[in-house]
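Final report, results section. Input specification for complex C-07:
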Amino acid sequence: MNPPEVLAWRDGHIEALDQTALPHQVAVLRITTVDELVEAITRLAIRGAPVLGAAGALGVALAVHQGGREGWDGARLEAQLNRIADARPTAVNLRREVSAVAAHIPHGRQAVEAAALAVVEFATAASHQISRRGAAYLREACGPGRRLRVHTHCNTGALACLGWGTGLGVIRALHEQGVLEEVIVGETRPLLQGARLTCWELGQLGIEHRLAGDGAGPFLISQGLSDAVVVGADRVAANGDVANKIGTYGLALAAHRAGIPFLVAVPESTIDEATPTGAAIPIELRADSEITVPAAPAGTKALNYAFDVTPADLISAVVTEKRLIPNGQWLNVPVP
Amino acid sequence: MNPPEVLAWRDGHIEALDQTALPHQVAVLRITTVDELVEAITRLAIRGAPVLGAAGALGVALAVHQGGREGWDGARLEAQLNRIADARPTAVNLRREVSAVAAHIPHGRQAVEAAALAVVEFATAASHQISRRGAAYLREACGPGRRLRVHTHCNTGALACLGWGTGLGVIRALHEQGVLEEVIVGETRPLLQGARLTCWELGQLGIEHRLAGDGAGPFLISQGLSDAVVVGADRVAANGDVANKIGTYGLALAAHRAGIPFLVAVPESTIDEATPTGAAIPIELRADSEITVPAAPAGTKALNYAFDVTPADLISAVVTEKRLIPNGQWLNVPVP
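Structure output:
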């Protein structure tokens, strides 16, 4: 799979792989308006924190284009940018990249496009750095010379992050280095990004993997079936607490008790110094029907949080494109 | 719902509610042969450890009837009883009740039927005792005078256990005592017994409840959304380790960290002194397709354990129809 197929800028519009259609169909969305972009983000056709950041960046270029066609004034343009920034609440990347690229608006459309494309290119390069650094950490932490079995959750590959991805990028680096034995993938209810997307990406890459129910993850870890857990994150708070797809917290508890590494792989842009702790991270509460259809009796209410927060003390390390931050040393590892 | 509808003996055959058809359809199976019974148990139309015990008991009566019709010799009858006992591997109840009722075979068909019906009646009475004792424990453990929010997993009501059930019986007792605020139900992938069966039973009883994904459970507990966790069990080892539906272990880790009670409600028959620890409990590995269909790419392999094992140190108490065994006092609470 060629990364530009995940998300690309095509002469005034965005092309994006429709991630809701995978794995059964490879469909490309042609997005020409802010409305279409917001809709694609909301229904998770475009998803994954770093890809959301890139989509936010390209969204500014799209809004400037659409504004030019339709003669928007500054207030209208700003309102549309806010709609993009607010399309999903949890990942900090979306709002951050919208703001960063919007700062170029006074310099004209070409400057905006260049800034947006730079965000995409940077995300791709960062994923490679994260992948290599994370793989080196796991090889060291698990004991050199071993073939590793890695548990992961949700989707953190090219589909979510461009390039190699973050968590799945670490796994891909282990695979290319010949030290990966198997990946165990949590299906990631309710939207099944693990089953649909991660299994698809691992299959494309020829990486051995097995799919497990989300409830099974902690037990499989307790039984010694994994040597490490690797996940991405949607936001890392200033104290090292990590917001990620619901289900992450239970895996961290299990890894902690089993004494295996729990690695969080993120771009620096996911670390939000403005959020003091995990308690300050807004957790998206999604539609009941994602959980209740089709199995529950009609009218059943649900409690459908999309993310959870894992306290910093349960995390072995956070790896970014610039640094490796081990447990307990959060404040001692400056950005190089 | 009238308990005899879950499982009943009708003049030479078994009637059983088809639990795979719920909640959309209330269908009653008429089971007249051992083949039909084994098939109903294997595909989980009849399920839940105590109901499996009762089904095993009635299965002996059924085999004796069928053997009488078809002129089986002793070896043929014994082979058929073994098929029933082996239809599911994890719950100890099935094999135990088959053996117990089979001991009456030398005394004739009427003795066998009476013994089998006694198993059903005993399970019903035991569920009421478990329910009341468990509710009293939780009211005390959570602080008297509070309205409780309880997290549960899988299905442990009348459908699984006859009478009031075990875990769900405790919840029903809290409800009847006016001290239950809400139940949070884990959907219990892959077969969704929480979503399909527990939500249906709670709806029938008029008990407030919300459905959550299995991965969400540990996080919801960490956020203070539940005051206690109550589950049933398929087998309790001699050291207090508990085998229960996959997903239980992660809830126990979360309850332990949150400092809330984690109560296991079982009939005494679920406690297996012959199994020294959880490590000796065989864990059923079920078909990949339960996990991979319909979301994963074709050909994806799965790791589909049906149960997990929760170590005794994570469990606040085990409650049975005869005793309450608090954490750490496993060997000090004799059967009264």
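Chain B touches chain A through 52 residues (CB under 8 Å). Chain B has a mean pLDDT of 94. This concludes the modelling results for the funded period.
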